[in-house]
Batch of 4 targets.
Target 1
Amino acid sequence: MGDSINFATVTTTLATVATVALYFVHKRETSKLRDALALQRYRRAHSKPSFEIETLFFPDKRIICWNFLFSKCRDESCGYCHDCEAPLARLVKTLQNAKRSIDLALFEITSEELTQALLDKLKEGVRVRLIIDSEYMMTTGSKLGKISSAGCEFIHDHTHGLFHHKFAIVDSQLVISGSMNWTRQAAIGNYENVLLVKDKNTALDFEKEYAKMWEEITDRLKSANEKLPDQAAEF
């Protein structure tokens, strides 16, 4: 009888200890899970998104100071714009930040500011390539001669349609795309939009299309027995 009572007591005690132990284990694991979820929410709230998009709207309200863009303006009475957040200043800065490559697909290029940014990058050893429309590469004020002489590789689309793209891929990381032709008129006179999209997947999509266009256009030029304009003597 006594042994039965002792056995029952021991059994009850063990069951109680096990229950208490399970309770504390459950409490500890629940606390860990709660902390992990809180950390996850914190990281999500405070971490940078996987992509960033900046929107630029033109025309610029005022003409940007050249020295402000490319060196330093020391003229205290300068009447030009010195706003680093002005649309054209942001666009130039994006090109200036390139470290390895800039791939351009443009209808035309006459902008002095954007051309200078490309020339500076070429001087630094950044690879710059350009696909441009056949007709508008010769337009009045075209800067194709300048950048090709400085080392920009380029081909021109020779079809019956227009090569109407206006985009650039910077360092395989960032895409510049929008309605704006790379001209002075577009920057200071037209209503235009430009998106700066920092996203590797988006950049990869544009790179694939760029490589496809480069191959197709090069093949068409060769099959038409046209000399690839790798030098700017004709300009």
Target 2
Amino acid sequence: MDKNNFEAFTNLPALKKNAIQVCGQEFIDSLTKKGIYAKDSEFWEEVNKKLNIPNDAYESKQAREQAERELQLLEKKAKEQAEKERLLTNKKEIFSKNRKDWKITVFELP
């Protein structure tokens, strides 16, 4: 999970070279001397502490992306509905009939 937080916060893959790039070679070397390597979750915990990355960075990024997707979907639906209404306002309705859950409408050809 700490790797996911690193990736979400920095937009970089959770690789040792990226940790070196962000934290500095000395910090990573000090972890290596302590026997903490990039494959260990403790390594990523220490890197996240150094960068002040919150523990919920991954979850907040996921929630933000989900909200953006929902907003885009709503905007798309609103745009389609507006276009449909615009097209229908210029048409002359000849016949309309309701059938079960459907409304059948016949328009005059332009």
Target 3
Amino acid sequence: MGLTCVVVGAGLTGLAAAWELTRAGADVVVLESERRAGGVVLTERRDGFLVEGGPDGFLVSEGDIQALARELGLGDRLVDQLAQGAMVWTGKRLEPLPLGRAAELLDIQGALDVGAQHAAPLHYGFRSLAGGMADIVEALVARLGPTVRTAQGVAGLAPSRRGWRLAVTGGSHVEAEAVILAVPAWAAARLVAAAGVLEARQLDGVAYAPSVTVSLAYRSEQITGAREGTGFVRAADADGSVRAASSA
């Protein structure tokens, strides 16, 4: 009996998809071109510091990721932000931003629907995990076990009698009834274009906003004055290339 599904990409999305399929009884394999799982989620724990190389949290309104954390036994590892509030850059100065408005200015729709979708004591701000965002990746990898195959990228995708045939780097092939492409749009475009999917050009046109993470540590006596809030967002009519910045 062959595979039910191959998930291409072992980022958080791919791992979560594989987890849900496995719980439903499907025979799944996750193929990841990098030597580690996690994608853009990268947490380093060094010299007593917890440093995030990718996302450092998620909106409180995102109930799905919190539900997943609880499914994985990480409910007691969910932590709220210590600082409250944020600032908005008007183009000339930073001004206080009302609670909950940051997500609205960034056009994050989920934050606007929190009242209708998720009942929680805190309806604004961010949450994370006590050991960093890698906590949830590590928990998924531990439960999926050999299902996750790193250093095995997908070089080609083509229809087959069973469903789909995937060419894996190194010369091997995998067949499955279904494929989930949990990869960036440009990577998905390359694979589906080779499979003859006409809509591949639309995927290739998806633009991503770049982000940069800079981590600096200071002794408490080196910081003068009170820090306010968790960062800032840029107003839509303000000039500048930085859309938002966060601090902890």
Target 4
Amino acid sequence: MKKRLLAIIVLLIILVGCTGKMQNGNGDIMSISDQNDVKEYIPPKMEGEISISTMNEDEYLTIAAQKFMSKYPNVKVIINSYMGTEDEDDTGVSKVDSMAVENYRNHLNTKIMTGKVEDIIFTGLLPVQKYINIGAFEDLSKFINLTPEINSDNYFMNVLEAPKDENGKIHTLPIRCALSIVSFNKQLVTDSNKKMDDGMTKISFEKAAEFAQQLVDNTNRKNTFLSLEEGAHFFNRAFNDYRNEFIDMGNKKANITDQYVTLLNHVKDLEEKGYFDTENSIDFYNMEYYFAFGIDFDMQAAFYSLLPDTYVYAMPLSDANGNVYLNPNSDIGISSTSKNKELAWEFVKFLLSDEVQSLPSFYGLGVNKKGLDASVERILKMYNDGNNEKVSKEAYKSLLEKWIMEINAYDTSDPIITDFVWEESKKFFDGKQSAEEAARILQAKIDKYFNE
């Protein structure tokens, strides 16, 4: 106990004298010393009960809870899963339908608003910013700053700090490093004789689409399309380039301008000119076909971009301002109404540890560096076993780490507003309303939602 107290005191001295700085997604520089003063964190007695709210009880979470209770026999961990145990896909994301998600949101909303929510909440499917604004989540930065083992030697701190707001507060923590990757078809790049800018390490969807259009326009290959996605899906990705201009989550304002209308019409024009396979003409099993680019998940994109005879060029997707966003699907928060915040933090720390993030059932890329190493080895074996050509662990890990280090921003988009955007854009592409009508209705929907 004396050693632990001494470590805390030493850490406090270091923090006071620290001049290191970090950059948030807006490009603002914040010093650690700029954050609010924090009280000394005294680890709790490891006894009591903590509860967890999650849509699905993933296997690694079940195992982690069992291990934690084995370490601390006087602690009980209760996992309240809305849909029970469910398998994840290869990206580490559980598969759920939209109706179940909506029901879960309503269920959890009632618990949050009545102050009867669990101690720990998996926030990936929630309108997180809405709940942060009403103070539903505890600020975790004070716990992080007083936990010596959470440092750049052990963790990807740019990922853990990606959710930090302009006041230096962190209300949700990522369990995984997840980001979207843009992949271009190498054969079409070769055909077109087009080149990316030297030194480019990331690209916005708009720039990627412009480059991909050049690839389609400069090849003689048949059955060549811009993307596998149809126009409505394509538009939603393009919308995200300028999401922060259209929607100000912090001030609860929407500005669905002429730029939105122009973007809708531009993608519709691409669709009408045959850049998408709107006729479903591709026989995927019996004909050659080519897509100029697509959005892939990190682990798969890294493997295929490193094959000796690779057929893709890949890099992280950014927004129009060059920010690379962390996917928030695997984030967690601690309820501000919890009576066991310190005990809940001890379990959160355990989820971040290499002991948990090295588990075979932990899918995806962990924020813990040792955990990432274990994941890389396991994932790479799966890909290498299914291919004649092989990729080395060193190259695979190095590329993934390079991509992870590009993360500098946090996706605060509200999934309910995302649904609104999809609904109105889909009606436009289905010919049920004009671009101007879509803009007007979307503006009204978001305004109403913000005022509820």
